[in-house]
Amino acid sequence: MGLAEIAAGVEVTAEQRDRGVATVDRTDESLAERLAGHEKALPTSAETAATVLERYAAGDSVGVAAHRAGTAPVTAAKTLHLLGESVHPLGPTGREVVADWLAGDLPRTEALELARATETEFALAVYVQTHDPLADACAAVEDALAVRHRPDEDPLEETRSDAVDLL
Questions:
Q1: Tens-binned pLDDT, residue by residue, of the chain (167 aa)
Q2: Among residues 58, 46, 29, 120, which one has the least CA distance to residue 82?
Q3: CB of 98 within 8 A of CB of 90?
């Protein structure tokens, strides 16, 4: 069998259909309804967690999202962490200091000084390092954290070079 026989019937088209970016929404339930099954593991109610997540996904800071949801910023940060968002208040060195404190290698006052953190930041860092995100809750809200694009906007525009870039 030669190439001509293998390629028999293969056609090449000059056009492709633009289908846009695929979005996934596996449920018709609201975000609060999806979080209701995980409410016992969250530091706040499902409704408050949904509001925090929606505001945060819309671009609000953790503090603004917390204010709009009627909860404390630390509670909002804990909620976002449990739902899979990275909200660690410390850098790599601060994380190592917290890990050393958790292991009992440092007293708290020394750990606070070395981490260069406030009491609140240190407490949140400890929470983040001692609580893993809730896998089922993360899956339930993954589409809420997806980046949304307008239909007339090219979502890959930033990845392409302009003709000027080639000069």
A1: 787 888 787 777 666 666 555 555 555 678 888 888 888 999 999 999 999 998 988 888 999 999 999 999 999 999 999 988 888 899 999 999 999 999 999 999 999 999 999 999 999 999 999 999 988 888 877 766 665 544 556 556 666 666 555 55
A2: 46
A3: yes
Handedness of CA 28, 143, 90, 102 (dihedral sign): positive
Closest among 39, 76, 75, 30 to 56, alpha carbons compared:
76
Kindly report each contact of residues 141-144 with a partner whose C-beta sits within 8 Å and lies 24 or more positions away, as own/partner.
141/31, 141/34, 141/35, 141/53, 141/83, 141/84, 142/24, 142/84, 143/23, 143/24, 143/25, 143/26, 144/31, 144/53, 144/54, 144/57
36 touches 46 (CB < 8 A): yes
Query: What distances in angstroms separate CA 127 from CA 16, 61, 116, one per listed residue?
Result: 50, 19, 17
- Strand ranges inside 46-110, DSSP E: none
Domain boundaries, the chain: 32-84+133-148, 88-132
